[in-house]
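sorry for the late reply, my laptop died twice this morning and i had to redo everyting from scratch. anyway the thing you sent over, i finally got around to it. pasting the sequence first so we're on the same page, its 194 residues, then the predicted structure underneath. double check i copied it right bc i was rushing
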Amino acid sequence: MFRLTPTVRTLLIINVVIFVLQNIAPVFTGYLSLWPFGHPYFEPYQFFTYMFAHGSLSHIFFNMFAFASFAPILEQYWGDKKFLFFYIATGIGAALIYAVVNYFFFPGQGAPMLGASGALYGILMAFGLFFPEMELALLFIPIPIKAKYFVFIVGGLTYFLDRSGTVAHLAHFGGALVGYIIVQYWKSQNRGRY
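ok and here's the structure:
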Protein backbone atom coordinates (compact mmCIF):
# COMPACT_ATOMS: atom_id res chain seq x y z
CA MET A 1 0.00 0.00 0.00
CA PHE A 2 2.11 2.92 1.27
CA ARG A 3 5.89 2.84 1.36
CA LEU A 4 6.45 5.08 4.32
CA THR A 5 9.78 6.83 4.70
CA PRO A 6 11.28 7.35 8.18
CA THR A 7 10.32 11.00 8.71
CA VAL A 8 6.84 10.51 7.28
CA ARG A 9 6.33 7.49 9.56
CA THR A 10 7.49 9.49 12.60
CA LEU A 11 5.18 12.40 11.79
CA LEU A 12 2.25 10.04 11.31
CA ILE A 13 2.92 8.41 14.69
CA ILE A 14 3.18 11.81 16.41
CA ASN A 15 -0.14 12.91 14.92
CA VAL A 16 -1.89 9.70 15.96
CA VAL A 17 -0.44 9.75 19.50
CA ILE A 18 -1.51 13.37 19.96
CA PHE A 19 -4.98 12.57 18.63
CA VAL A 20 -5.30 9.73 21.14
CA LEU A 21 -4.16 12.07 23.94
CA GLN A 22 -6.73 14.65 22.81
CA ASN A 23 -9.44 12.04 23.15
CA ILE A 24 -8.22 10.84 26.55
CA ALA A 25 -7.81 14.38 27.91
CA PRO A 26 -9.66 16.92 25.70
CA VAL A 27 -8.01 19.81 27.54
CA PHE A 28 -4.91 19.17 25.39
CA THR A 29 -6.80 20.38 22.33
CA GLY A 30 -7.16 23.86 23.78
CA TYR A 31 -3.46 24.09 24.55
CA LEU A 32 -2.31 22.77 21.17
CA SER A 33 -4.73 24.68 18.90
CA LEU A 34 -3.79 28.05 17.42
CA TRP A 35 -5.93 30.74 19.04
CA PRO A 36 -6.32 34.18 17.42
CA PHE A 37 -3.93 37.01 18.27
CA GLY A 38 -5.23 38.88 21.29
CA HIS A 39 -7.23 35.95 22.62
CA PRO A 40 -6.40 35.10 26.25
CA TYR A 41 -5.47 31.54 25.23
CA PHE A 42 -3.09 32.58 22.43
CA GLU A 43 0.52 31.46 22.88
CA PRO A 44 3.33 31.73 20.29
CA TYR A 45 4.19 28.02 20.55
CA GLN A 46 0.78 27.27 19.00
CA PHE A 47 2.12 28.20 15.54
CA PHE A 48 3.93 24.87 15.80
CA THR A 49 1.66 22.67 17.92
CA TYR A 50 -1.61 23.29 16.05
CA MET A 51 -0.46 21.18 13.10
CA PHE A 52 -0.25 18.02 15.21
CA ALA A 53 -3.75 18.21 16.69
CA HIS A 54 -6.99 17.26 14.90
CA GLY A 55 -10.66 17.88 15.52
CA SER A 56 -12.17 14.51 14.62
CA LEU A 57 -11.42 11.02 13.37
CA SER A 58 -12.32 11.96 9.79
CA HIS A 59 -10.10 15.07 10.06
CA ILE A 60 -6.99 13.14 11.03
CA PHE A 61 -7.80 10.23 8.70
CA PHE A 62 -8.04 12.30 5.52
CA ASN A 63 -5.05 14.48 6.43
CA MET A 64 -2.82 11.52 7.23
CA PHE A 65 -4.07 9.49 4.24
CA ALA A 66 -3.09 12.30 1.86
CA PHE A 67 0.16 12.87 3.75
CA ALA A 68 1.11 9.17 3.52
CA SER A 69 0.22 9.19 -0.18
CA PHE A 70 2.39 12.12 -1.31
CA ALA A 71 4.99 12.94 1.34
CA PRO A 72 7.18 9.79 1.04
CA ILE A 73 8.07 10.62 -2.56
CA LEU A 74 9.22 14.11 -1.52
CA GLU A 75 11.21 12.74 1.41
CA GLN A 76 12.96 10.28 -0.89
CA TYR A 77 13.68 13.08 -3.36
CA TRP A 78 14.90 15.69 -0.87
CA GLY A 79 16.18 13.63 2.03
CA ASP A 80 14.85 13.63 5.57
CA LYS A 81 16.25 16.94 6.86
CA LYS A 82 15.13 19.01 3.90
CA PHE A 83 11.73 17.34 3.92
CA LEU A 84 11.22 17.96 7.64
CA PHE A 85 12.24 21.60 7.24
CA PHE A 86 9.74 22.00 4.40
CA TYR A 87 6.92 20.36 6.36
CA ILE A 88 7.46 22.49 9.47
CA ALA A 89 8.03 25.70 7.46
CA THR A 90 4.84 25.31 5.43
CA GLY A 91 2.85 24.45 8.56
CA ILE A 92 4.13 27.48 10.47
CA GLY A 93 3.82 29.68 7.38
CA ALA A 94 0.20 28.62 6.90
CA ALA A 95 -0.54 29.48 10.54
CA LEU A 96 1.15 32.89 10.32
CA ILE A 97 -0.78 33.84 7.18
CA TYR A 98 -4.04 32.64 8.73
CA ALA A 99 -3.43 34.50 12.00
CA VAL A 100 -2.23 37.77 10.47
CA VAL A 101 -5.02 38.01 7.89
CA ASN A 102 -7.65 37.22 10.52
CA TYR A 103 -6.16 39.75 12.93
CA PHE A 104 -6.26 42.61 10.42
CA PHE A 105 -9.37 41.79 8.40
CA PHE A 106 -11.58 39.81 10.81
CA PRO A 107 -10.62 41.01 14.29
CA GLY A 108 -12.33 39.21 17.13
CA GLN A 109 -13.96 36.62 14.86
CA GLY A 110 -11.40 33.84 14.72
CA ALA A 111 -11.91 30.42 16.24
CA PRO A 112 -9.00 28.21 17.26
CA MET A 113 -7.40 26.40 14.33
CA LEU A 114 -5.90 22.91 14.33
CA GLY A 115 -4.80 20.23 11.88
CA ALA A 116 -2.01 19.35 9.48
CA SER A 117 -3.79 20.76 6.42
CA GLY A 118 -1.58 23.84 6.05
CA ALA A 119 1.57 21.72 5.85
CA LEU A 120 -0.27 19.16 3.73
CA TYR A 121 -1.16 21.80 1.13
CA GLY A 122 2.51 22.77 1.05
CA ILE A 123 3.32 19.10 0.36
CA LEU A 124 0.71 18.95 -2.42
CA MET A 125 2.05 22.14 -4.00
CA ALA A 126 5.63 20.83 -3.95
CA PHE A 127 4.52 17.50 -5.36
CA GLY A 128 2.73 19.26 -8.22
CA LEU A 129 5.78 21.45 -8.93
CA PHE A 130 8.40 18.69 -8.82
CA PHE A 131 6.38 15.93 -10.44
CA PRO A 132 3.89 17.81 -12.66
CA GLU A 133 3.54 15.09 -15.29
CA MET A 134 3.16 12.17 -12.88
CA GLU A 135 -0.24 10.60 -13.42
CA LEU A 136 -2.25 9.83 -10.32
CA ALA A 137 -5.02 7.27 -10.10
CA LEU A 138 -7.46 8.46 -7.48
CA LEU A 139 -10.43 6.73 -5.91
CA PHE A 140 -12.89 9.54 -6.62
CA ILE A 141 -11.73 10.33 -10.19
CA PRO A 142 -12.13 7.43 -12.66
CA ILE A 143 -9.32 8.54 -15.03
CA PRO A 144 -5.66 9.26 -14.22
CA ILE A 145 -4.89 12.93 -13.66
CA LYS A 146 -1.55 14.73 -13.80
CA ALA A 147 -0.16 15.99 -10.52
CA LYS A 148 -0.02 19.60 -11.76
CA TYR A 149 -3.84 19.60 -12.08
CA PHE A 150 -4.48 17.57 -8.96
CA VAL A 151 -3.32 20.39 -6.65
CA PHE A 152 -5.96 22.75 -8.03
CA ILE A 153 -8.70 20.11 -8.03
CA VAL A 154 -8.10 19.24 -4.37
CA GLY A 155 -7.99 22.91 -3.40
CA GLY A 156 -11.21 23.55 -5.25
CA LEU A 157 -12.95 20.50 -3.82
CA THR A 158 -12.20 21.37 -0.22
CA TYR A 159 -13.36 24.93 -0.79
CA PHE A 160 -16.59 24.20 -2.67
CA LEU A 161 -17.59 21.10 -0.69
CA ASP A 162 -17.21 22.76 2.70
CA ARG A 163 -20.72 23.47 3.97
CA SER A 164 -19.73 23.75 7.62
CA GLY A 165 -17.73 26.95 7.37
CA THR A 166 -15.22 25.48 9.84
CA VAL A 167 -12.45 24.68 7.34
CA ALA A 168 -9.49 27.08 7.51
CA HIS A 169 -9.22 27.68 3.76
CA LEU A 170 -6.86 30.57 4.37
CA ALA A 171 -4.43 28.18 6.07
CA HIS A 172 -4.66 25.82 3.07
CA PHE A 173 -3.84 28.70 0.76
CA GLY A 174 -1.08 29.86 3.11
CA GLY A 175 0.57 26.42 3.19
CA ALA A 176 0.42 26.16 -0.60
CA LEU A 177 1.80 29.69 -1.01
CA VAL A 178 4.69 29.14 1.42
CA GLY A 179 5.40 25.80 -0.27
CA TYR A 180 5.47 27.50 -3.66
CA ILE A 181 7.87 30.20 -2.43
CA ILE A 182 10.24 27.68 -0.83
CA VAL A 183 10.27 25.46 -3.93
CA GLN A 184 10.95 28.42 -6.22
CA TYR A 185 13.79 29.55 -3.95
CA TRP A 186 15.33 26.06 -3.88
CA LYS A 187 15.04 25.79 -7.65
CA SER A 188 16.78 29.16 -8.09
CA GLN A 189 19.60 27.99 -5.80
CA ASN A 190 20.01 24.62 -7.53
CA ARG A 191 19.33 25.22 -11.21
CA GLY A 192 21.44 22.23 -12.27
CA ARG A 193 19.76 19.74 -9.92
CA TYR A 194 16.10 20.56 -10.47
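Strands lie at 135-138, 141-146.
thats about all i looked at so far, will dig more tmrw
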